[in-house]
Design brief:
Blueprint lengths: L1 H16 L6 H4 L7 H20 L9 H8 L8 E2 L10 E5 L6 E4 L4 E6 L2 E2 L1 E7 L3 E8 L2 E10 L2 E6 L2 E11 L2
Antiparallel strand pairs: 1-6, 2-3, 2-10, 3-4, 4-5, 4-6, 6-7, 7-8, 8-9, 9-10
Amino acid sequence: MLRALGFLLLSVFFCTACRTDVPQADRDSSSNQSSAGREQSADNSSATGQAAVESGTAAAAVTRKDLDQRIANYNDTSAWHYGERTDGELAGTWMSVDGDGHHIVFGADGSFSTDFNGNMTTGLYAISDNGRIVAFSKWNGIGLGSHFMLDGKTLTGPKGPRPNAQWTRTEAMK
């Protein structure tokens, strides 16, 4: 009888420790974080969620600093141009050649827009002397980084699971 009671208590202990509906911080008795610290973390995550909702405003537009941070991820040490290198090089609408209707819009002034689940993002792009294009745009507070290589009249870059999707210009900007 005593052995069965010990087994029952041990089972209850393990089941309580393994409950998934109780946060890990509440289950972990060895945690050095006080309940006040957990409340502050919860408050911070709420504030972060609110900031993400509010970032869809005009104040959250893409800046040159945002774009420069993206460019730093690439080992292209050639000169970068914030807009076209030569007139008419990129400005216009580019359509994916796979027929899915995904399009990209480059402005001569360095503006950039791409299709994001049926919505157009807005942002900036730069092109290096080596033909690498790096863009950063946002839609409703969601940032989207893009990169392409310009090879004559074709853009090549990742799209979804395809690392080498291609786009051709369908309409040049006037």
